[in-house]
């Protein structure tokens, strides 16, 4: 008994005493929330490119009992150096354990992000769940700007991305996902892209990367279609203008779920054919066209038309991806898995990818049409 | 004499000795050495370690459960055994100590960057000392308790189902790896711990079930390694996995609960338990050897001296690279010992049996 008491006394002491070594008093910490990075091109050929880094963290105003987010900007060679410079001006100790989001300006993204992400994956204090987003324009300006209806810009962007990702309007891209796809030889990375639209910040689409370099983007209304191609998912909304399919009216498809299957085959000449089959199910909650949703045959016709419409949209996206030679839907993974290791390592997938035939096959099912018959 | 260890406790004890800090880098080791689908190679190592356990069971059967020191001392003069004893003693003591140091250094990296590592090391040593002087029965009781304190962590695997992708596993088996030869030694070293079963002979009850328990302990270890490594291969891309220093630590940091995130510091603390048992059992093994060398002294003094000496030795390597290098070499030596010691004992027993038959 005595021994056990001794053991636990020491265990408890160990736990408590170790706190004395590295004290972190919450009032004296500045929890970095969002960081933004922009490229500062070299002034002349002798100097190097630099980074403009902005960091935001909450400051608690004890008298007003209010929290305000301050933005600090510095120019430095690396993000850690900028953090040190900013820290020199602050009475708080800046810590990055609760950092939620990082924003990268377009010019920096074009040059390549990995050097700047490397420090994030290396630092054990930084979460793998930190968001990676591209800003169409200047990231520092966007972060610094005050949006009247959204007091804390960093937090606002973070929540906006969170919410939009839940309905698959933008992909949720964290450090984990970006690094995972960056190091995978069968898929290219993506990131959401946002921009300042005056009074608010809005999702601008999806940035497509080749390696760690930004190549091109998909528009925001293509996002949900891209989501169909990229993965299976359970939640989403889609609004279709039926004018596109030669009918009149508007059609809103919600609580979508998508089941994607990819099959790789080869034709007689040996070139790859990739079939992406998508089963899309959802309920119709708004429909202003002429078809009778309660009629099974008419509903079937509508399903077919919508399928065709989606297929056409997907074709446009696939063409754009192939034209820019970015495999952001991960076709490469399936091609890789269809062959032997030695054949795959010999294959120059990057140069082959633009010529591969990718055929989307969409099957739309109207699960229900709400609680109103017509 | 004191109470004997029962098979259930032995199985858990063996598992707790085997698992330690190495599990954090284990998936990367597999990916580096065996390439795509390296997780499947865990099965190969399970077979190898089971074979070595089979050798140990031969020793147990041939020696009829006698302590290995008795077996050695009956056949070999004591002065010739002394160098072997000194070698084993220092190997086990330093091995135990280095495991502690590695745990401390990783812990420091993620949680307490400016505290002196030897301060933590000293705290762990005090805990270990109390367990070691309690004797093997107390240790096994503690290890059973500790086992239940970490067993729940298996449920954490549910967090990774959503991002797990079969396509990431690829159909390639054991391709794209580098350095399978040395890597295999490192991986085999990760299974080490079962060889301490050799020293448990005098402390176990019923003869038949003891070896079975050692096999089961080894299987639990393999199963843990297999599940975590498999998850890592489907959760991370291959290229990413080969670059991560501690894939398991990254897995833990991925967990986010609705009310809290970044709980890996907390979760990492739980890994103190298996690490502690590893440390304690290796030092206990060293104390067992010391008892043979200086039988007159009090066991507590043996332990105390060993702890002080190994603490001093562990002061030498002080960056993570050095500690890992030491552990790697010690692992190689211990891997050879795990094979050589049972073989030596089997030869001794056979020769003795032959001699007895001739008489």
UniProtKB/TrEMBL annotation, chain A:
Domain Spore germination protein N-terminal: 22-195
Keyword Cell membrane: no
Main location: membrane
Keywords annotated in UniProt: Germination, Lipoprotein, Membrane, Palmitate, Signal
InterPro entries assigned to the protein according to its UniProt record, in alphabetical order: GerAC_N, Spore_GerAC-like, Spore_GerAC-like_C, Spore_GerAC_C_sf
Residues in Spore germination GerAC-like C-terminal domain copies: 204-370
UniProt subcellular location: Membrane
Pfam (any one): Spore_GerAC_N
GO CC field: membrane
Topology in the lipid bilayer: Lipid-anchor
GO-annotated biological processes: spore germination
Family membership: Belongs to the GerABKC lipoprotein family.
NCBIfam families: spore_ger_x_C
Listed name of the protein: Ger(X)C family spore germination protein
Protein species of origin: Paenibacillus pinisoli
TrEMBL record, chain B:
Keyword Transmembrane: yes
Domain of life: Bacteria
Residue intervals passing through the bilayer: 7-26, 38-60, 81-106, 118-139, 146-162, 182-201, 213-238, 266-287, 299-317, 329-351
UniProt-annotated location(s): Membrane
Alphabetical UniProt keywords: Germination, Membrane, Transmembrane, Transmembrane helix, Transport
Annotated signal peptide: none
GO BP annotation list: spore germination
One of the record's GO cellular component terms: membrane
Membrane topology designation: Multi-pass membrane protein
Family: Belongs to the amino acid-polyamine-organocation (APC) superfamily. Spore germination protein (SGP) (TC 2.A.3.9) family.
Name recorded for this polypeptide: Spore gernimation protein
Provenance organism: Paenibacillus pinisoli
